[in-house]
Automatic annotation (TrEMBL):
Highest taxon listed in the record's lineage: Bacteria
Domain Flagellar motor switch protein FliN-like C-terminal: 253-323
Main localization (coarse): other
Organism in which the protein naturally occurs: Paenibacillus gansuensis
Keywords: Bacterial flagellum, Cell membrane, Cell projection, Chemotaxis, Cilium, Flagellar rotation, Flagellum, Membrane
Cross-referenced Pfam families: FliM, FliMN_C
Gene (UniProt): fliM
Location(s) in or outside the cell: Bacterial flagellum basal body; Cell membrane
Family: Belongs to the FliM family.
Cited NCBIfam families: fliM_switch
Name the UniProt record assigns to this protein: Flagellar motor switch protein FliM
Taxonomic lineage of the native organism: Bacteria, Bacillati, Bacillota, Bacilli, Bacillales
Membrane topology: Peripheral membrane protein
């Protein structure tokens, strides 16, 4: 970010240039020199800012779907929001999570490789407590999951992957499937330690318990669909044409739509007193002559000109002219 100079700093800089303490030419040379920026190959940049923005949009939807799902399952207040989307080495992610946590290792066909949904113990045990009839409070001491608790956890998070599938629907049709549930990060090695991952951090609140849910997506897993995460792809996919079958269905429904058709014989203006005094046999003079065409409207739009008549004992209008789009109504 560019530093903004204060007025005193600007005055001091101008005074130094005027007195000769600073040389303007030297300052220009410094600006033209190439600036070298250090690059850490252990923290390779694989995701562009465009990719990060797309991942943020996708997982904001994921957070909303998860909020709805957990609220229904736990029957308590749940709030989940995206806090940060960043890229970092897989080894750094492993070292940043607790030594004992809930690690949902899953696959998502057609993508190849494994991903991880890490749930902080406070959040996971609060969910478990609610599912087993408790108030949803996290325990003060964490113990190894029992067999029953493991089964309950697997059922909770297996269904949570439906929300991930729905969030990614605009990019690719995923089929997430829980592969294993681990509690020790050291036993989980899904990619090499230096592999770059996208880490989506979700702040989670269940009742009075707060914690984090982290989604770890290795770059090597989503590399085949990286082009779909660009803004250009999003705009193109939004503008894609309808399939022929959809067009046929839409056209058939339009042909069955009913619209009112109105043939106007003319217009007239009378007072309320005259209107209230109308009787059978009275004649109202219209502003249209007998040899002038009638305005035929479809809905409220003028579409045709026609002539009045009758057919088989019924009043009818014979269309004599099609009014082009945007034409004004016929006036005398």
């Amino acid at each position: 970010m560019v530093d903004v100079l204060s007025q005193n700093e600007i005055d001091a800089l101008l005074a130094a240039l005027s007195s000769g303490e600073m040389d303007a030419e030297e300052l220009k040379k410094e600006d033209t020199q190439k600036k070298v920026r250090a690059y850490d190959f252990k923290r390779a940049v694989r995701f562009s800012k465009d990719h990060i923005r797309s991942l943020t949009r996708i997982h904001e939807n994921f957070a909303r779907y998860l909020t709805t799902y957990f609220s229904a399952q736990l029957r308590t207040f749940v709030q989940i929001n995206v806090v940060q989307v960043e890229q970092l080495p897989y080894d750094e992610f492993i070292r940043s999570i607790p030594k004992m946590t809930i690690l949902n290792i899953f696959e998502a066909e057609p993508l190849e490789g494994r991903m991880v949904l890490e749930v902080h113990p406070n959040v996971a045990y609060a969910m478990l407590d609610r599912m087993l009839g408790g108030t949803g409070t996290a325990p003060t001491k964490l113990n190894t999951l029992t067999e029953i608790e493991t089964i309950v956890m697997e059922r909770i998070f297996s269904r949570a992957f439906d929300s991930l599938q729905e969030a990614w629907k605009t990019v690719i049709e995923l089929q997430p499937r829980l592969e294993a549930l681990e509690t020790n990060p050291q036993f989980m090695q899904i990619v090499s330690p230096n592999e770059t991952i996208a880490l989506i951090s979700l702040s989670t609140k269940i009742g009075d318990t707060t914690g984090m849910i982290n989604l770890c997506i290795p770059h090597v897993v989503i590399e085949p669909i990286m082009s779909r995460l660009s803004v250009h792809h999003w705009f193109v996919s939004q503008k894609r044409t309808r399939a022929p079958e959809e067009q046929e269905v839409l056209q058939s429904r339009l042909t069955k739509a009913k619209l009112p058709i109105i043939a106007e014989l003319g217009n007239s203006h009378i007072s309320v007193r005259e209107f209230l005094g109308l009787m059978v046999g009275d004649v109202i003079t219209l502003d249209t002559k007998t040899d002038e065409p009638l305005n035929v409207k479809v809905g409220e739009r003028l579409k045709f000109h026609g002539s009045p008549g009758s057919t088989k004992g019924r009043m009818a209008v014979q269309i004599s002219e099609i009014v082009s789009e945007g034409a004004e109504e016929y006036d005398e």
